[in-house]
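[job 0412] stage=fold_complex status=start
inputs:
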Amino acid sequence: MAINKEASSQIKGGIFYSVGIGPGDPMLMTLKAVSTIELSDIIAVPKSGADQNIALKIAKDYISSKTIIECDMPMTRDTNLLKCCHDNAVAAISALLEQGKIVSFLTLGDPTVYSTAMYVHKGLTERGYRTEIVSGVPSFCAAAASLNTTLCEGGQPLHIIPASYKDTDSLLDLDGNKVLMKSGKSILDVRDRIKQNNLTGMMVECATMENERVYKSLDEIEAGASYFSVVLLKSNE
Amino acid sequence: MAINKEASSQIKGGIFYSVGIGPGDPMLMTLKAVSTIELSDIIAVPKSGADQNIALKIAKDYISSKTIIECDMPMTRDTNLLKCCHDNAVAAISALLEQGKIVSFLTLGDPTVYSTAMYVHKGLTERGYRTEIVSGVPSFCAAAASLNTTLCEGGQPLHIIPASYKDTDSLLDLDGNKVLMKSGKSILDVRDRIKQNNLTGMMVECATMENERVYKSLDEIEAGASYFSVVLLKSNE
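[job 0412] stage=fold_complex status=done
writing structure:
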């Protein structure tokens, strides 16, 4: 389904798109991500250090002279501070939507998978604005591709576990394959536990980015890894 | 990273690409899927009934006059028959790679997620041919986008469970959200079990295809659903 700017502009008020721009390689953007960015008046990006520059870098060929707004999204577990930042972003973008603007919020990977964009997305939806998600390739699919292997086959379940989950150990014993997201810093801690579980561990840092690094075995890892790390644990069947 | 046909043709022997073409909407193909298909000499598709036509339909704008080969991939649990079909596909494609051809095997969604393409991919890799995976948007990401909701947030795990898993019930109790893949036929059977677990169930049939249907509640489902169904179960926190 192509997006048509004329059709969009007939709708009262603007539209907010959470746009997944994929894992890093600009060629892994979807045609829809490109066309949505191109029809947008304003490009919003999270400002949280490295993230911001990466999103703009991936999509740079399609942004050209568009207005860019940065939304403070600090990497903190202070829930009050985060809520305040999300509320600020919702307020700023609401004002633009009231003017009928089309706003694309860029997010790495897919917006429905651990994306901060969705807090803003939800806030705008609750205020009654038109919001849409443009899917992207999640980092764990890209990591498996870089490893030239599957995430899951046949009747195998796949368990996706974020680094901030409170009880990762309890899930390592589950039947099926596991993906550990953003566990770069703690990977050395879980490595020994993984070995006890008859699992094969592999890791990709910064999948499909220029500084991608592939570890066919967790034994190759010598120190904590990048925030953008995906660990794949496969059952040895 | 752009793909360059001249560079590719300097490599001895051909290249086999497992190409994810996304969930259904041709606009959800990646730029890399499009360019890989365009540089290919031959397009391979699974022949298993509906699947074949859908893959060719999604990618039709980029295939034009290319040679298309069909690989028998019947929907059966007869492992001997399946192995025979995979071996036949590997043999047929090996012959093309020996001639230096570039072959793209089209697969719905992402090739690393429950794709039959990967049995052929693995067979060709084991025979020493150059094989690569081109990532695509998985159907469960597209389903969440159609529901305008997240798959997982913050510290929540996400459990992906295929319909053919032997003990789905044991996983419904797990902490975190769940995706049930291709469980259209059995959805009425698990619905009551789901209600007992303080979970909210939603479903999307044929996400982003022309005949997409969104169910905001499993109570809306009256009969078995399409093979291309994704059920999302979210914790009521």
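[job 0412] summary: Residues 79-98 of chain A form the longest helix (20 residues).
[job 0412] exit 0
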